[in-house]
Amino acid sequence: MDEGRLAGRVALVTGASRGIGAAVARAFAAEGASLALGYEPRPDMAALAEDLAAELRASGTKAVALAADLAEPGAVEELVDGARAHLGPLDVVVANAALSAQSPWREISVAEWDRVLAVNLRGSWLLARAAYPDLVASGRGSIITVSSVMARTGQAGALHYTASKAGIIGLTRALARETGPDGVRVNAVMPGAIRTEHEEALQPDADAVFEQVTAVQSLKRRGTADDLAGAFVYLASDDSAFVTGQVLTVDGGWVFG
Description:
By secondary structure, the chain is α/β, with parallel strands linked by helices.
């Protein structure tokens, strides 16, 4: 019987309580991985993450939910230590957690700017740094970051978010240069307009926005978190053993090139 492309591997996925992170966690579990589910330390996120962990365990997957504020270096270290203590050394890290925020650029406070960049960009670096010894020892370590098509198109009203996601591209490529000699791969997934409950709550006119995007996409439907999950499985598995420093765009043909 096929054990799955990630059989025997331990993966840490941040932002795993809902949306893209939850879809990635389920896809990894289906391929045989054990899962550490990182979530924002809020009661609602804790409940969702614990429910997902219970769901995965019921299906035979080793899974644990762990809280962490990715803007805090000590919390990131504790997250990685907790994942290792429950499941063993890490083979795959998915830096998915991010803050989405919208404000006209002149109304963004310094505190809001710093918070978005701290979680979205610095948090990805901190996570990679904390997990790195495990990933090197794995012999097949994979770091997967998450950018956004907004980094290519620009997005009015979301300067701080867009800047953080553009920064992820540079982080991914520079990090891949440094980690390659140690056998650790680093790649990014760049989602397009993906339908999640969080995004719909963030944008009151979400339906109109998605209609505009769909009009310019080659594939005339709205993307879902499940549409992205296969890209993460590919980048985590040996299918991409000779792939590093790449940005894999999954946007239904919104942006080419």
